[in-house]
């Protein structure tokens, strides 16, 4: 929370490159614990990106952290490519909804889990197979739809409760990228022979614990590959659930805690 911002540049430091006063920018705050719950904020210019011309500040604020994280996890670390298949959990959330769009744009087959009420929206974003995680066993669905092969990549935010089924859902040479542990990060059991003989990789990633230079590289990779895709025909879509004025941040938190949102909840200062 409080990690993403969008607004107008008011001042630039002496070493800043590529930005000037008056530019519209969006970006990821470089401090642990956020810093974006404010009318004025300072951001490392290497964590910033220009806002595409057709986007307003609200939709721009829904891009930086979630799309950068989705690209890093799925494309850079997970090495997803055209023709691959991917299972994305929490697909109606901020990072999940971004990952679904990036996977679809890449030409991958997308399996996605979400609550039943959110499945239609997930399909609209590009999921080929939308799975109700409350009533369906996602591992069984993957096995059936892939005729036992499994998927090339799993993007997970849940953790321990899904771990065994995530491993079972992977194809030979598959990659599990663990982006979060919302359901618990306790002990898990894994059969090392399964990892060894099926050539499976388990990769953990979180932005806030990375060195600043690595964060710069994450933003740069996303910007170079995807930023221009927020314009034109089959463009990427910042998914905004709702907006609240900064003074009602507590209400925004309650909305998030209710798990009713699809996509990002944005605080406005205007």
Structure characterization notes:
The chain is α/β, with parallel strands linked by helices and 270 residues long. It folds into 2 domains: 4-65 and 210-268, Quinone Oxidoreductase, Chain A, domain 1 (Alpha-Beta Complex), CATH 3.90.180; 66-204, 3-Layer(aba) Sandwich (Rossmann fold), CATH 3.40.50. It has 9 helices and 11 strands. The protein has helices at 57-60, 64-77, 94-106, 119-125, 138-145, 160-169, 192-197, 212-226, 249-257; strands spanning 4-8, 24-28, 48-50, 85-88, 109-114, 129-132, 151-156, 170-178, 201-204, 240-245, 264-268. The strands form 3 sheets. Strands 6-5-4-7-8-9 form a 6-stranded parallel beta sheet, sandwiched between helices. Helix 6 links the parallel strand 7 (151-156) and strand 8 (170-178). Helix 2 (64-77) packs across helix 3, helix 2 (64-77) crosses helix 8 (212-226) and helix 5 runs parallel beside helix 6 (160-169). It starts with a strand and ends with a strand. The mean pLDDT is 94.
